[in-house]
């Protein structure tokens, strides 16, 4: 998908065959299992409730690294050995005597970028090249930044060959304000506050949305539809967001899958709590129950979807 992608694929295949470094425990069977995902029909069928099948197909221990929107979060798998190896290699880049300013990079290429907040180096993907620098996406964390050329370096094939470690996801069973609509910023801020402690969570993956035609590293693992639970208490992050009033539920009667319907019914008390207290979306009454309320496109004027 990326520029010179066939070369990176060859490098990765060679490392896998020799079981080098991060690939020493790799197996073809493990790779096949990691790349599975639901089809377009399943994604469409489960869009309202966030589930297209019965029991979760996978349970992962994760740490959320970025909240890009209320329906777009990024998470890393806790204990992933490739993250430790990447950190070690990138730390060595930071210890170099002088930065290596790369030749002109183009959109679609991989590089290494220095994040402004901690001055550390991370793997990045160039989304846009401008006279002012590069708009990059940090492939192992899910965040973005515009970097000047002096804070960008070339990346070697071994670092490029490791798959992106940021898994794109959204919460299952709930609907949230789409980007560009009223309350989208508040919903994002509220979710970021709920997930901002860096604590490990259990992600129950109930579906995986495919990438479609978009070619971008954020879609390497698809988009996981997950229940995020606190390991000790079992508290559901979706329930906490519903309680704030910045999320709603689809109508349970419209959900055909029994497991998804039961999950939505279990969450109804938290939505009702927000409705009674007139929090968030319910401040001026019920925002309604239209099936397309959570569309990402700006809405006409109204209590739920008035564009900012």
From TrEMBL:
GO cellular component: cytosol; nucleus
GO molecular function: nuclease activity; RNA binding
Pfam families: TUDOR
Stored PANTHER family: EBNA2 BINDING PROTEIN P100, STAPHYLOCOCCAL NUCLEASE DOMAIN-CONTAINING PROTEIN 1
Domain Tudor per the UniProt entry, residue ranges: 104-162
Region (Disordered) location: 28-47, 285-308
Gene Ontology process terms (BP): mRNA catabolic process
Protein's UniProt name: Tudor domain-containing protein
């Amino acid at each position: 998908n990326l520029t010179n992608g066939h070369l990176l694929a060859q490098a990765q295949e060679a490392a896998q065959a020799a079981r080098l470094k991060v690939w020493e425990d790799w197996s073809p069977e493990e790779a096949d299992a990691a790349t599975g995902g639901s089809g377009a029909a399943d994604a469409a069928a489960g869009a309202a409730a966030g589930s297209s099948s019965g029991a979760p197909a996978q349970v992962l221990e994760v740490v959320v690294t970025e909240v890009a929107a209320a329906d777009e979060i990024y998470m890393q798998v806790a204990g992933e050995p490739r993250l430790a190896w990447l950190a070690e290699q990138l730390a060595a880049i930071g210890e170099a005597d002088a930065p290596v300013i790369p030749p002109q990079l183009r959109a679609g290429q991989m590089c290494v970028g220095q994040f402004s907040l901690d001055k550390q180096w991370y793997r990045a993907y160039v989304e846009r090249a401008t006279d002012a620098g590069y708009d990059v996406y940090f492939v192992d964390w899910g965040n973005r930044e515009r970097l000047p050329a002096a804070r960008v370096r070339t990346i070697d094939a071994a670092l490029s060959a490791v798959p992106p470690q940021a898994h794109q996801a959204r919460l299952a069973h709930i609907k949230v304000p789409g980007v560009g609509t009223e309350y989208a910023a508040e919903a994002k801020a509220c979710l970021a506050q709920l997930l901002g402690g860096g604590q490990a969570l259990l992600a129950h993956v109930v579906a995986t949305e495919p990438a479609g035609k978009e070619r971008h590293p954020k879609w390497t693992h698809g988009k996981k539809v997950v229940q995020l639970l606190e390991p000790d208490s079992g508290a559901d992050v979706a329930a906490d967001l519903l309680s704030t009033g910045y999320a709603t539920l689809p109508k349970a009667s419209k959900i055909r899958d029994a497991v998804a319907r039961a999950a939505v019914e279990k969450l109804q008390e938290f939505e009702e709590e927000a409705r009674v207290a007139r929090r968030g979306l319910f401040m001026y009454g019920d925002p309604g129950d239209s099936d397309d309320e959570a569309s990402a496109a700006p809405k006409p004027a109204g209590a739920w979807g008035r564009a900012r």
